[in-house]
Amino acid sequence: AHPSGKRQDVRSLKALTAERAETAVSLSATKTGLDAIVVDVPSGSGSVRVTFDASSLQSRLQLLAESAGDSAEILLGHVRNDELVLVRVASTDGHATIVLGQQAEQRSYGLTLAHAAAGEERMETSEDYRGRRVLAAGRSIPNLGWGIAAQIDRAEALGGLRVLALFHLLLGLGLTLTAAGLAVRLSSRWTDPIRAQTERFSK
After folding, report:
1. Which end of the chain is less packed: N or C, by CB atoms within 10 Å?
2. Is 143 in a helix, a strand, or coil?
3. CA 41, CA 21: separation in Å to the nearest integer?
4. Could you report the per-residue pLDDT of 145-185, keeping only the tens digit for each?
């Protein structure tokens, strides 16, 4: 993935690393699913936006979902202005991004993704964002403030022990590796280009 962003003044660039704690990481999606990861780094007089192509990540997550079952779906979520924003890894109905409402309210409803975005790890039977009964598992993605959840319709999960066992196996391996790997990769991918620009413009 190649970062892109507009050049800011030298003082702004020097402030980037110091203000990294305030960096906002969000997800961008087209009508068909996850498209990009957007990093906005604020500074005293503006901000720098870095965009990473997420097509490779989308492909891997979609393959994981397809292997788990016909109704399996992997969801990413982040909180924006206290609202939970759901991003479907793949969408066939043109609705890849859905603002679900207040994060606290979604947690009170028991939505697995809302708990994952709040840093909780869960595996449970619950209602999803469509109101369907699903078997779902979720966990947070360290350092990014996102949640990731995988779900499969409860009827399909209970209809075959093989599907259920495979789903649990994929969740245990896939979510752990995705959460750990994504956090490590992104932490360096968004800071390395910014550090390079800071050094270049400060000379």
Report:
1. C
2. coil
3. 9
4. 788 898 888 888 877 766 666 667 667 766 666 776 666 66
